[in-house]
Model the fold of this input.
Amino acid sequence: MKAMVLSAPNELALCDVGDPDAGEGEVIVEVAACGVCRTDLQIVSGDIAMRKRPVVPGHQVVGRVAGTGERVGLAWLAGACGRCGQCLAGRENLCELADFRGWTVDGGYAERVVARRDYAFALPDRLSDVEAAPLLCAGIIGYRSLRLSGIRPGGRLGLFGFGSSAHLAIQVARHWGCEVAVFSRSPAEHRLAHELGAAWVGGYDDPPPEALDAAVTFAPAGSVVVSALKALAPGGTVAINAIHLDGIPAFDYDLLWRERVLRSVANFTRADATEFLELAAEIPVRAQTQTFALAEAPQALARLAAGEVQGSAVLLVG
Ligand SMILES: [Zn+2]
Ligand SMILES: [Zn+2]
Done:
């Protein structure tokens, strides 16, 4: 089969490789589409150290189970141990033995991929393959970030950075009746934020009209975390949606004082995935997508790095 194989940082190439084999409890998924995520970019560039070498990137996979034809989605969490303290406490996202698709196991930049049956998610019919792909990481993790930010229906929410994940999260927040302020540097992102119902749009350091009840940062820059704290009301939370971030600059304790909370968001659980996918079909959440062929993965990643993808990039495979 054809696959985009990462043999070393910055060495991603289309290769002919052997078909994967399914073991006990596993299925082969024939890939139809695979979303391109900023995490893929960080793995390919070496910002996130490779854990499996070589590896096929890609963790927003829509495909059909070989043999049954059932449409499923595969996402970043590819498996957890089910026995450790974190797993037993309902936090499989923090399992030390967890596998991650496109990082510790092969992902969806390929015609076929093997997956644990219990980590393959049913997809609502009303979403097309291309529409569903970005929901599988950007969407699910954006949803978990909203939940961990503590935002309540009708509350004032700030989104810092407005790429793939934020443009999906705003649709959930608007569905909950939140007033959403969007902070971004990009004029194209400002336009998209207005179209998707942002009440206010500005730059990272512009003060919003009213202090925020909660904020989620999506921009992969530590300084944006401080910008978010500055815009936050006492008692509010900043949830950081980033697997990799450069240093957070020192800031005055006054920004955290009065019970403001700063927390990270790591991965997601299967419960997050199931809840979000149902909600996304009900709202319905619409991903703006730009499609590329499998062999164009390097170009898709380069455009993402350059900030030239509006919404989400998706590889068409099948
Ligand atoms: Zn575990
Ligand atoms: Zn991702």
